[in-house]
Specification:
The protein has five helices and two strands; from the N terminus they run αββαααα. It is mostly helical.
Length: 113
């Protein structure tokens, strides 16, 4: 249920917490970007080995899921809007885009009931 019907597509506050939001560190100081994903991706892109690995995959496999960064580029994350997130989820997180693999010696028809 969390994949096909996540709270993040119904409640903009989830994006604000998990994705990005503005925060004031101290009175009189400029606004800063914060957010779980934003901070994680800043960490990923501050590591030279991660940057090299991402660049390699982006260039070798550009048209595959391995060629894109699922967390996002830190400088682009603040451009993400709630409406864009909803549309992206509607388009890509749909059962018709899923693939399933079964393993075992029980009848496959039984699993599909």
């Amino acid at each position: 249920d969390a994949v096909l019907h996540p709270r993040a597509t119904k409640d903009a506050r989830v994006l604000a917490q998990e994705g990005w939001h503005y925060e004031v560190e101290e009175k009189g100081q400029p606004l800063t970007f914060k957010g779980v994903v934003f901070n994680e991706m800043k960490g990923v892109y501050s590591n030279p080995d991660s940057v090299q690995g991402r660049t390699l995959l982006n260039n070798l496999l550009p048209d595959t899921p391995y060629g894109v960064d699922s967390g996002g580029m830190p400088e682009e994350i603040p451009n993400l809007t709630f409406e864009y997130l909803q549309g992206f989820h509607r388009r890509f997180y749909h059962p018709s885009n899923a693939k399933f693999w079964f393993y075992g010696d029980d009848p496959p028809e039984r699993r599909l009931e």
